[in-house]
Amino acid sequence: MLQISPKIRAQFDTMLIEKNIPKSAHTDYRKWLRYYLDFCHKYHFDNSKKESLPHFIKKIRDKRQTTGQQKQAQQSILIYYNITEPTKATEKISSDKKDKLPFSQHDSLKIKNADWTSVYEKLNSEIKIRYYSSRTLRSYTGWARQLQGFTKSKDPQLLSSTDVKDFLIYLAIKRKVRSIFNMEIKGYFFWTV
Q1: Which of 10, 54, 68, 144 has the fewest CB atoms within 10 Å distance of its CB?
Q2: Could you give the 3-state DSSP secondary structure of residue 154?
Q3: Helix pair angle (117-129, 134-150), 10° resolution
Q4: What's the rounded Cα separation, in Å, for the pair 59 and 38?
């Protein structure tokens, strides 16, 4: 079985403490991470890609692990993703930071008509990882399409919190979206933008 590197192990243990995981469960969380790394190695999945997680959960479900164990395993791997994601790649670059990008990156980011395929792929992946319903996926995809239209397909890396706030204000005031839907939208943007 693959072992966790000392650097990842130290960061993982720190995250367990930060996430208030009971100390008595730390061994189990590390065990799930080792199983996940071993699974990805054995079945040729990229252990840094969230698309691998549903396959891992299915495998442990097939091995008759309880729902509680499956949830614990999922939480363990989500913590692992938090420490392995490149910090700059996961941050959204606001438009005021665009001028500070290297020339090649500056050129490739579009203020209008950018490709949003990666946004929808990430959304689909996140919905699957969280075992949300297909109805939730349709709803969130609809809100994402509306945001894309509202921002005139501005490159997702250029979106700022101001863009999202302006969109929510537009929905509330101009479109008169009811508060329950507004809360759903805020939930969507909480973990995607």
Answers
A1: 68
A2: coil
A3: 150
A4: 12
Q: What's the chain's Rg over C-alpha atoms?
A: 19
Q: Which residues lie closer than 8 Å to 39 by C-beta, 6 or more apart?
A: 45, 55, 56, 59
pTM here is 0.46
Distance of CA 108 to CAs 101, 104, 114, 174, Å?
10, 6, 9, 33
Q: What is the pLDDT of residues 55-74, one digit of tens each?
A: 999 999 999 999 899 999 99
Q: In this structure, which amino acid lies at residue 192?
A: T
In DSSP notation, 83-147 reads HHS-HHHHSPPPGGGGGGS-HHHHHH--SSS---HHHHHHHHHHHHHTT--HHHHHHHHHHHHHH
Is 148 a residue whose pLDDT tops 60? yes
Quote the crossing angle between the two packed helices 53-62 and 67-84, to the nearest 10°: 150
